[in-house]
Amino acid sequence: MVGSASLEISGLHAGYGAVRVLEDVSVRVDTNETVALLGTNGNGKSTLMRCVMGLLRPAQGSIRASLDGRDIDLVGLSPEQIVELGIVLVPEGRRLFPRLSVEENLLLGAWRAAARPERHRSLDFCYDCFPRLKERRRQAVGSMSGGEQQMVALGRAIMAAPRILLVDEPSVGLAPVLVARTMEKIAELQKRLGLTVLMAEQNFQQAVRIADRGYVIVHGRIEFAGASAAELNDNQLVRKFYLGV
């Protein structure tokens, strides 16, 4: 992918009614980076993703994307407008159409204007990345394993020709060996397409395998920002919560 694409979240406060979930959260993802947002369940990772995608309006703070030098305020835009910019989410739980085939689910990802003319080429790319999906392209997604469904969810996002890819909890419901393969595929897609990736994940060991750097979120606040995977590994907070040290 040619050009630059970055994301800047500053001083974000958000919640649901009287329940405040995020408190003064700031996160930066630079062009072609993979940044991990690490935290156990219930600490606000998915809420942050919903804010970026326009599914939840923050109470305070800014969310800005820079695309090829164009600075865009995402707060107040609809999810459709945000996707049209090339910011695409792979949601937690995959959210596929179980009665539709693999290929039908993939093609639904190519609805945005910039992606439609390239849908056949993008489909070939998805099948090159995920040969299993090509073998099963006529199979109903609901009859597939969790790992295969995660491939479809990633492929559907790629069909949208993303510039910035958000991946929410890709390891949920997967066996350990499938988690490792899923992470490897995310890394492969990032490199082959030159994507900017923000990944929310609770599996620390797997996430840091592919992340350039990351943030640790605890009770809705960023408690540590690691400038590298090595810094995350060496941090005492991480060692306490994730490594049992």
Number of helices: 10
- Strand content bin: 25-35%
- Order of H and E elements: EEEHEEHEHHHHEHEHEEHH
Query: Tell me about the biggest sheet?
Result: 6 strands, mixed
The percent range for helix content is: 25-40%
Q: What is the C-alpha radius of gyration, as a whole number of Å?
A: 17 Å
How are the strands of the biggest sheet laid out side by side?
A: 6-7-8-3-9-10
3D architecture notes:
By secondary structure, the chain is an alpha/beta fold. The chain is 36% helix and 27% strand. A six-stranded mixed sheet has the order 6-7-8-3-9-10, with helices on both faces. A four-stranded antiparallel sheet has the order 2-1-4-5, with helices on one face. The radius of gyration is 17 Å and the shape is globular. 44% of the residues are buried.
